[in-house]
Design a protein that fits this description.
This protein is mainly α. The longest helix has 20 residues. It has one helix and no strands. The model has no long low-confidence stretch (mean pLDDT 78). The chain is elongated, with a radius of gyration of 10 Å.
Length: 28
């Protein structure tokens, strides 16, 4: 379960970084 949380937080951080640069596909 903890690994899933870590992965989710990684993805969220990537999405936030992507939104700052460009908002084409923040979920990829």
């Amino acid at each position: 379960m903890e690994e899933c949380v870590k992965e989710t937080r990684k993805i969220v951080a990537i999405i936030k970084e992507g939104e700052e640069e460009e908002m084409d596909d923040p979920y990829l």
